[in-house]
Specification:
The protein is an alpha/beta fold. It has eleven helices and eight strands.
């Protein structure tokens, strides 16, 4: 992305967020979820998770780390699924220091490599009978065009394709649990996304933010289509989507670092300082989707504040495009072909 594009990025994101907020004011669902009192939902309301096994992707920093920490503090056995085992082990040590007695494991997972996804799933299924919670959190944002080990555009490949494959491969353990949830972390950026079925890998034309928005819309199409198929199969698994708002994490730094641009990095750092909420606050949306009583499959959780940039979690409506069942089914079929992963238990 050129320098001019990055200087107007903040304005574009603000305009998109405002449009999303105005749309949601008329269409969103702001009532508290059933089973909880009026008032903001906080981590203090996370129930006892002593018999819960959770997998959190990208759990070594940012939203993933805060999600894993909160789950471990309430007794869940948390698997930190991370690209760098060394960074994952440091995160695990920090979690155990903050929550003495926490049950935490670290396992390698590179969502940009389907062989790694398969290896992680094989390891997990060999070690665990059930999986009560899968949090599809890891992602990349607005980076220069790169390809995964399997030839997918990196943002589409990591944010959507890798998580599609992971969820399908872990489905047997999810189905064996008495009740389980899959939480897929999307973004308000999905509002500006469209699925370019003629060029999913952005080979003909690439926009860093356009590819990101496409991948985040793909997350929602996947989450909602998964719920449709779970319902049709009568499964006791719920698929829920979450948007963390604008949270200060390493996600925003990756693009500027890859572009080797001090200007871009400074712009993102300034935006984080001015607009962003903490990673812990952003992770509340993921946690609410993951464990709050009354959350139903097919729901979208996002902050209650202005432009959905910050605040406390509530259920909202996502974009009209995200509920396009025909597009979701088409993307599902393509994703099965790209990954070779078939959700046979839901057939």
């Amino acid at each position: 992305m050129d320098r001019k594009s990055w200087t107007i990025t903040g304005a574009l994101l603000g305009a998109a967020g405002l449009a999303a907020w105005l749309w949601q004011k008329g269409n969103g669902r702001h009532a508290p979820a059933a089973g909880r009192a009026e008032g903001p939902w906080t981590a203090a309301e996370i129930p006892d998770l002593i018999d819960t096994t959770a997998v959190v992707t990208g759990a070594n920093s940012g939203l993933g780390y805060e999600t894993a920490l909160a789950l471990a503090q309430q007794g869940a056995h948390v698997v930190l699924a991370v690209r760098s085992v060394a960074r994952g082990e440091r995160a695990a040590a920090e979690i155990c220091a903050a929550a003495p007695g926490a049950s935490v494991a670290v396992a390698e997972l590179d969502l940009a490599d389907l062989n790694s996804v398969r290896a992680f799933a094989a390891w997990f299924l060999g070690e665990h009978e059930t999986l009560e919670l899968l949090v599809n959190n890891a992602g990349v944002m607005a980076i220069p065009r790169r390809e995964t080990a399997d030839g997918f555009e990196m943002q589409f490949g990591v944010n959507h394709v890798g998580h599609f494959a992971l969820t399908g491969l872990l489905l047997p353990a999810l189905l064996r649990a008495e009740e389980s949830r899959v939480v897929t972390v999307s973004s308000g950026a999905h509002q500006g996304g469209r699925i370019n079925f003629d060029d999913l890998q952005s080979r003909e034309r690439y926009s860093a933010f356009g590819a990101y928005a496409q991948s985040k819309l793909a997350n929602l199409l996947f989450a909602y289509e998964l719920q449709r198929r779970l319902d049709a199969a009568g499964a006791s698994v719920s698929s829920v989507a979450a948007h963390p708002g604008y949270a200060a994490t390493n996600l925003q730094r990756r693009g500027p670092e890859m572009n080797e641009s001090r200007l871009q990095a400074a712009l993102m750092e300034a935006a984080n300082r001015i607009f962003a909420q903490s990673a812990a606050q952003g992770a509340l949306n993921t946690l609410y989707a993951a464990v709050a009583p009354g959350v139903e499959g097919g729901e979208y959780v996002a902050p209650d504040g202005l432009m959905t940039m910050r605040g406390y979690p509530v259920t909202r409506a996502s974009s009209r495009a995200s509920y396009d069942a025909e597009a979701a089914a088409r993307l599902w079929e393509i994703s099965e072909r790209l990954t070779g992963v078939q959700y046979q238990a839901l057939a």
